[in-house]
Design a protein that fits this description.
single chain; 386 residues; alpha/beta; 4-stranded mixed β-sheet; 15 helices; binds pyridoxal-5'-phosphate
Length: 386
């Protein structure tokens, strides 16, 4: 008997390969860091989101050992059953204080937190307004909510305003990445808040890449946004925080509502409490992390100066540790990425459909764990292969 569906999958896989769109996983041995062993080879990694170098930090490792002895490995149940550990609770309190919001709720991943917030805030009579370059998890969350989903051109506030003005929806949410994950630019938070106030909408900001890095580590919120009840803030905790999970910070009625209504919070086992203990230590390191952030800023300057005169391709205007180098065609990005790997430098090619057609790029990310020599090596290799 033929299995036509399986044959179609196999044809689909072959087509992806022909278009240079097939993805593969590289195998990491040992710890995350600036230098990693990937597929059995030592390379300098310019692709992790471990911006502060906390993922394998000795203080975090010690906190994990201590927590392991205190609370074991698994959470055992969902938060609303018996899984809500004091470590989870203490982290939520500390996180809310640090980012300057009244309350916080810890999730297992950023993807789940986005699904939770948008599905709990709006239903079929609501409307979600999203920047076109928002992360896939926000796009999926908006769809899953059943709300009317409208996308505005990246950063186009005039278009957003006309969409808001034309909406008759009762509950409205403006949803945006705070730092855009593939471009590295920062959303105009106060201007978005102006529109949220004018049209009585929530403003939901996903700061996966700003938390730990911007504003002494407190993330990309402005003072006005911190103080506003309509701003709901998300930090993911597997990037600069170096651990995993995500925290939503907002007015206490919002976090209470999520506990009551958000299915990706309710119907899942709590994350291991030892991770929350590591996150508490991570928060301390982030708070005391000015030296790490200064080193990171120095690397960003060094890279931008070093690549300024490259003719084949260009760096996008980004002041964050995400430094995309746009080359255009998928095949060219892949070719450059391979050539860099031959020189022991791991820089991923980001292709369509993750980014718009014709803007395939090398997504360089920098970390405080890099040395100036690592960055110099990348600059030299980029000149050789471009
Ligand atoms: C990484 C990322 C997420 C997902 O967070 P995870 O904790 O990895 O699931 C959500 N939003 C943005 C903008 C991201 O970059």
């Amino acid at each position: 008997m033929t299995h036509a569906a399986l044959t179609r999958l196999q044809q689909g896989l072959a087509a992806l390969k022909d278009d240079h769109l097939d993805r593969r996983r590289r195998l990491l041995d040992g710890a995350q860091g600036a230098h990693v062993t990937i597929d059995g080879r030592r390379v300098v990694s310019f692709c992790s989101n471990d911006y502060l170098g906390l993922a394998a930090d000795p203080a975090l490792i010690r906190s994990a050992h201590a927590a392991l002895d205190a609370c074991g490995v698994g959470a055992g149940a969902a938060h609303l059953i018996t899984g809500h550990h004091r470590f989870h609770h203490d982290f939520e309190t500390a996180f809310a204080r640090f980012v300057g919001k009244p309350a916080a709720l810890l999730f297992s991943t950023g993807y789940m937190a986005n699904l939770a917030v948008l599905t709990a805030l709006v239903g079929r009579r609501g409307a979600v307004f999203s920047d076109k370059l928002n992360h896939a998890s926000l796009v999926d969350a908006a769809k899953l909510s059943g709300a009317n989903c409208t996308r505005y051109r990246h950063g186009d506030l005039a278009q957003l305003e006309s969409q808001l003005a034309n909406s008759a929806a009762q509950d409205k949410v403006i949803a945006s990445d705070l730092v855009f994950s593939m471009d590295g630019d920062i959303a105009p938070v106060d201007a978005l808040l102006d529109l949220a106030e004018r049209y009585d909408a929530w403003l939901y900001l996903d700061d996966a890449h700003g938390f730990g890095v911007l504003n002494a580590g407190r993330g990309g919120l402005t003072e006005r946004a911190r103080a506003s009840d309509r701003v709901i803030y998300l930090a993911t905790l597997g990037k600069a925080a170096g651990v995993g999970g995500a925290a939503v910070a907002a007015h206490a009625s919002v976090t209470d509502w999520l506990v009551q209504k958000a299915r990706p919070y309710i119907y899942t086992t709590a994350s291991p409490p030892l991770l929350a203990a590591c996150l508490l230590e991570s928060l301390r390191q982030i708070e005391a992390g000015d030296a790490r952030r200064e080193r990171l800023d120095g690397h960003v300057r060094q890279l931008r100066e070093g690549l300024a005169d490259l003719k084949r391709g260009h760096l996008m205007p980004s002041a964050t540790p995400i430094q995309p180098f746009v080359v255009g065609a998928n095949a060219d990005a892949v070719r450059m990425s391979h050539a860099l790997l031959e020189r022991g430098l791991l820089v991923p090619a980001i292709r369509t459909p993750t980014v718009p057609a014709g803007t395939a790029r090398l997504r360089i990310t920098l970390s405080a764990a890099h040395s100036g020599d690592d960055v110099a090596q990348l600059v030299e290799a980029m000149h050789a292969v471009a």
